[in-house]
Amino acid sequence: MSEALQQLLDVLSLEKIDTNIYRGITAKTKNKRVFGGQVFAQAMRAAQDTVDQDRMVHSQHAYFLRPGDPSVPILYEVDAIRDGGSFTTRRVVGSQRGKAIFNTEMSFQVMEPGLSHQADMPDCAGPEDLEDDSARWAKLAELLNKEDKARSTANRPALRPIEMRSVVPLDFENPVPRDPEQLIWIKAAGSLSDMGVAEDPALHMAILAYASDFNLMGTSMLPHGVSFMNPKFQPASLDHCIWFHDKFKADEWLLYAMDSPRASHARGLSRGSFFSRDGRLVASTIQEGLIRLRS
After folding, report:
1. Which domain holds residue 80?
2. Which CATH number fits the domain that encloses residue 75?
3. Which one of 63, 133, 207, 224 is most buried, by most CB atoms within 10 A?
4. What angle do CA 44, 49, 54 make, to 5 degrees?
5. Annotated catalytic residue: which of 182, 237, 273, 284?
């Protein structure tokens, strides 16, 4: 059992405190802000609890309004907007200290057959041939000076519930401009079967929603040779969307193919596609992030 994955499952297990009102916690962290993917996924779990199990979320659209405080629980209030014959709509607002920090809308659908096509999966090396990104980061950290090492590790959790292996790794210490494209294999850092929750497709979706916030905004920075280690760099997720197209397992390798078509006015737009090992496009995501360089 992965301690990091169990910690994520605990974070995604919300406390129901009233009708359509839930409370979520943040695992202990050095970060001064709540990870956006956590809020995105927790809101999804709150909405899922109010919808019949035969309806799966097929899209979620969200805005990050204020930085979340990791030391304070987040309250999620679900608005049951509509329950239709095929589709269900939910709105969720996350708040702390009486102020909204996040809002999102989700649409659920009864699965049905229909027309089908998809983009091709990129051809690249498999995860077995690649180094784990966290292992590579640990090696880099040992070579940094004291100040850079402290800055580079300040926002990285001690436990990492998502394994990531980059096809073409980034050089965070000495970044050089490159095409705004990334290919990264990802999966949950442990077996959901061993934890007894493998048969919960809604949980697999929430875990992928959580993971979708990793590396996406950084794709828009690649043409500019700027990394998160730059002390002048001020990043923040502004909005985030995800669409689910097919079944998948979050604890099996998925290829996260990302690109960024545009950056302007200190904002970068990035897109992502998740492919299963057998080539199916199972989910898509888009995010706009603040990529401000302070003077």
Report:
1. 3-112+126-293
2. 2.40.160.210
3. 207
4. 95
5. 237
